[in-house]
Structure formats: C-alpha cells, structure tokens
Amino acid sequence: AYGRVIRELSRDPGVPGADVYLTIDRQVQDALTKKLGEQSAASVVMDVETGDVIALASTPGFDPNLFNVGITTDQWQALTSNDHNPLMNKAIGGVYPPGSTFKTATALSGCEAGLGDMVVNCTGVMRLGDHEFHCWKHHGRMTVTSAVQQSCDIFFYTMAMKLGIEKIDEYTAALGLGAPTGNELPGERSGLIPSKQWKRATFGQPWQQGETLITGIGQGYVLVTPLQLCMQAARLASGKAVTPRITRYIGTHEQQRPVTPALPFSSDALKAVRAGMFAAANVPGGTAYSRRITEAGFEMAGKTGTAQVRRITREDRARGDLKNKNLPWKDQEHAL
C-alpha cells in the first residue's frame, strides 16, 4: 500500500513485443472524435469490402494514464457517476435498440421471402386486437423502396407480420446481428435478436404477435452494438459477409483476410434495399435528405433511426408535446 519493496519473490524479465499496426486512420479517427465531442455517443467507419475499421470512437472518453499513476477517489467518483458512461467503449460494448436502422434488415428479409412487390397504405396507425401501433407520419402508398426512404413504420409492421419472427431471426443472422463480430478488441457484447425460444427461456411466456411487429422496426427486445450496425451496412453495400478487423500488421507480417463469402440473398433483394437507402439520403422526402453530401461523386446511401427508451402512452399523445428536447436527458430518444 505504501509502495515500499519488502522482498523480491521472483523475476520474469519482459521481452520486446512486435509492433502492431492498426487499420485505424488517425486523421479520420481524430475528426470523428472531435465531431462527437462530449456527447454520449459512438461511431464506426469501416471499409465495406475488406472489413478494415478506419475509425472507431466512443465519447466521452477518459485518460487511461489515471489508472497507471494512481487515480484519486474524486476522479474515480467522477467517472463512475457520470451518466454519459465514459468508462464504457460504447462502439463495441454498448447495446441499444437500433430503431429504424433495423428496417433495412426487415426489408431485405421481406424481399428475400418474396414480399418485394408488397404495397401498403399507411394511414398513420395500425390495429392488432385492442392495441394501436403508430407511425410517425401519415405516408400513404408505400413500396419497399419508399418505405425505407421515408422510414414508414406501418409498412414494416405489415411486412414483419407477414414474415413472422422465425424468418426475421433467420435472415438477420446472415447480417451478423445477435452475435459478436469477432473483432480483436476485448469487451464486445453480442446484442440480441429475440426469438420465441428466447422469450420462453427468459420470461417463461409465449411470444406475442405484437412483439413481431415492433421487432420489425428495431424496437422491443432488439439490441445491437454500433459496430454491428456498421457491419450490417457494410454487408448490405458489398453483398459479402465482411467482418470488422483492427489489426493490419504484427511486426512485418500482414494479417491475411479469409475469402469473404457472398451473403445468402438475391441480387434483386439487395438492389431494392440499396435503392431505398440511396433515396433516404439523396431524394426529397428521405429522412437523411437534409444531411446529404451535395458534392458530385461523394453521394452516400444510408438509413437513419430513432429509438424510444420509454413507452409513449395515450395520455402522452393526447398532450401532444413529445419533443425530445423537452424530456429529461435519460428519457430522450436515441438518434442513429
């Protein structure tokens, strides 16, 4: 406790290890970290063909040297009591409801199951038994492409109900959700794609049809890490089962990548989802249109998401004030 040497029991001299060269691009990493600032946030940038992680950030962070030189009680209390969780690497160890970013997985599942030509009229609400399932907007006539573009909940409620939870489980597994990605960093969590068997084992209760509906829009029991979401986007973009890696060289030896197999989805299914993601970012009415890159040749496809962290009651809707900024921080929705 006082740092005094009493006696030496044994000695195991260390040997120099090999230098490790990462796939991380320092400039991209710095820019990303500065952009996130002190928000409770995470972001990942990944090469869609190779799986190389170009940047991986979790904010706010902390100085690891504090633990090397001796952290004070006040410093430890400040870190552990901070509701922004600076000690957690949110990119790989934080699990969150993916919200509407999961709709690309539902869309791909539906297209692969033969529902690619489905048309749904969104009236803003869908009833199942005595429950109402709401959309954030009255969209009208929706196809797969326009539903991804405008993030229509009613369309994906309907598609999820037609698919069933078993098909959703089967197809989302191919996108790498619900399991660790296998990257080299410790502390990765697997997230969760729920199933009938999981609910029975966890709660001792049968699966309900309404739970299938909210699974289809990435709510309910669904949990993912930001790294998994990035991998999902990379797989949609490339059509390959790419996995993230962070190590490029150990010493002078480049780490070889295994041949990446193709995803078990048809080219038509992938094409339909990519078209919706392109429209979301580049066509008026898309949920990411206001944040599009306008410089020619730099257009990006994407999918936004908003995930509730609390149940919105009928009384809340009647009051009408559901704006994020008016809620306590812990009740504010996740933005993806």
Description of the molecule:
It contains 13 helices and 11 strands. The protein is of the alpha+beta class and 336 residues long. It has a 3-stranded antiparallel beta sheet with strand order 1-8-9, with no helix packed on it. A two-stranded antiparallel sheet has the order 2-3. A two-stranded antiparallel ribbon has the order 4-7. β5 and β6 form a beta hairpin. α5 (103-112) packs antiparallel against α12. The mean pLDDT is 92.
Gap from first CA to last CA: 46 Å
Report the principal-axis shape: globular
Radius of gyration, whole Å: 23 Å
Output mean pLDDT.
92
Strand content: 5-15%
Query: Helix share of residues?
Result: 25-40%
Which structural class best describes the helix and strand composition?
alpha+beta
Q: How is the topology of this model organized?
A:
Elements: E1 20-22, H1 26-36, E2 41-46, E3 53-59, H2 65-69, H3 73-81, H4 90-93, H5 103-112, E4 120-122, E5 125-128, E6 131-134, E7 140-142, H6 144-150, H7 153-163, H8 165-174, H9 196-203, H10 209-215, H11 226-238, E8 247-250, E9 253-254, H12 267-282, E10 306-307, H13 314-319, E11 334-335
Antiparallel strand pairs: 1-8, 2-3, 4-7, 5-6, 8-9, 10-11
Helix pairs in contact: 5-7, 5-8, 5-12, 6-12, 7-10
Quick structural gist:
Helix content is 35%, strand content 12%.
